[in-house]
Amino acid sequence: MFVASSLPAVAADDQGYLSGPWHYRAVSCVDTTVKAVTPRLESAGQTKFTAADFKQSGVDVTFATGLGAQPLFPNGVAEGVHYQDGSDNDVMAAERPGDRVQVCFLGGPAPTKYCNPDRDSRGRNYRVWDYRQQRQYSGSNAEHDCGGA
Fold it and tell me: Are 56 and 132 in contact (CB under 8 A)?
């Protein structure tokens, strides 16, 4: 899962990222599919979502890959989360389960007095290219960084 912590996720285009699929040896990328697209906040058992749900709480996209998840977190998956009114929420909310995407792992958190990355899986950063929409976005795998609230 990727979610922005204290700072909202930033649109990849705003960071000057090159558009399109990446083919670099220095950046780990995989072609995969979207597993789920939900509002950042949802009610227990909720299975149907409205545009207002996404606008009010933000977007959470889960991918069918564990890229960036450490062996310490065997059930970890790549995920992206943006808060409400976050950059490129429209791209994320338009994702559909089964959509083909490229997910690139941009890095994880460094150990600090508040963050033990061996115990806290949050703070992994990703860049996503959606082949159907021909658009990209980036963000973190959790609403808070490693060691955050």
Answer: no
Q: Tokens representing 68?
A: 């960036």
C-alpha to C-alpha distance for 113 and 94, rounded to whole angstroms: 38
Q: Determine contact, residues 2/66, Cβ cutoff 8 Å.
A: no
Q: Which residues of 108-135 are buried (b: 16+ CB within 10 A; e: fewer)?
A: bbeeeeebebeebbbbbbbbbbbeebeb
Q: What is the pLDDT of residue 83?
A: 60
Q: What is the pLDDT of residues 43-86, one digit of tens each?
A: 677 677 766 767 777 788 888 887 777 666 656 666 666 565 66
User: Is 83 in contact with 60 (CB distance < 8 Å)?
Assistant: no
Strand partners, 53: none
Q: Measure the CA–CA gap between 115 and 124, rounded to whole angstroms.
A: 12
Strand-pairing partners, residue 72, are none
How far is CA 73 from each of CA 45, 81, 149, rounded to the nearest angstrom?
25, 19, 19
Q: Are 58 and 38 in contact (CB under 8 A)?
A: no
